[in-house]
Amino acid sequence: MTLTSFGPANRIKRSAETHPLTWRLRDDGEAVWLDEYQAKNGYAAARKAFADLSQDDIVQTVKDAGLKGRGGAGFPTGVKWGLMPKDESIDIRYLLCNADEMEPNTWKDRMLMEQLPHLLIEGMLISARALKTYRGYIFLRGEYTTAAKHLNRAVEEAKAAGLLGKNILGSGFDFELFVHTGAGRYICGEETALINSLEGRRANPRSKPPFPAAVGVWGKPTCVNNVETLCNVPAIIADGVDWYKSLAREGSEDMGTKLMGFSGKVKNPGLWELPFGVTGRELFEDYAGGMRDGFKLKCWQPGGAGTGFLLPEHLDAQMYAGGIAKVGTRMGTGLAMAVDDSVNMVSLLRNMEEFFARESCGFCTPCRDGLPWSVKLLRAIENGEGQAGDIETLLGLVGFLGPGKTFCAHAPGAVEPLGSAIKYFRPEFEAGIAPTRAAVPPLARPIVVGA
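Structure tokens predicted for NADH-quinone oxidoreductase subunit F (451 residues):
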């Protein structure tokens, strides 16, 4: 995946001052290896962190910069780092990079790992220094074979240059880094399921508390951060808090830049580094180029399959967590999908819910049984065999599987697009209700898993 551009994007040159994540990218899309990365000021931030900043200074700088997680949850990174224990007697700690990236319609971390593997390694090195972690793992989606190859080569380059391993930069600090490929499960994007999988266990989420900062991998303090999150750290350390905050648009409560994209039947599907606070319309029209000829925008999702659908009139919302929340859904991963006017929403939702039902870990009843139930109802409606009350049952499931009702956030994310689709396109669901079929009271139909 390479960055693409359209309209104004063609006239904007990426630079270190405006595009901290992507200015080092090559035009040919090939990976930037160690010599080129260092020629482009690579590892300068790590040298500064080791020479001039204490571990607490690094944590405070990241906190002051307002960096938030880029995996979808948006939790403040510096606050998360601050949860790691201060007890110096705990000499075994872990840093995990969540590179599972199985959210449908999301590929931002893949681009960073394939083309800028040393940026991630530098971000992890600085973070490890701040957190006093002596070992790190990049938990990588198993299907990302090119990313695995590039990351392993970059790790070996960094080792040979004394940037990983023992006594890094003469500081006495040791940090080993390993690339661990997973078996390909969506639930591994949840940090405690990721930890279980890394330990060789079934990828079920854990009960919290205790949180990973207290009891993580093999019972030791652990911090889990997303790829894009960690890739922001070098620029913050190198150029400072005020500069980083200045990158965002006025009105945005989120700081810095974000990898954003648009897919679907748009003229120029792609991925761009943009300041938080740009509008969805800028992203859709100026960068993605609008819909292809012959297609009309019906609705869009702002940040992956687990975010709610929005209408064309919502494109003026600013792309940051609070801006998208104002129009009724979440920013998610920031990679949007355009749905054109030829798409039947019932069929689209049936396809989505099949994915989410299959990827459930099966631990808690609402998710394990509720998601297959939604698939069964949607399939019947799609085939024109729905019964009176089916839509109300689906809405009931949206409530029963909502935030706080299940063991982790898998089910709430799965039903968010379903609830919004019924809200905005209910007639398409009603069209699948057979008029002669007897009504069944809402939520009274039997659950048939896998039917």
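The first strand starts at residue 94 and ends at 99.
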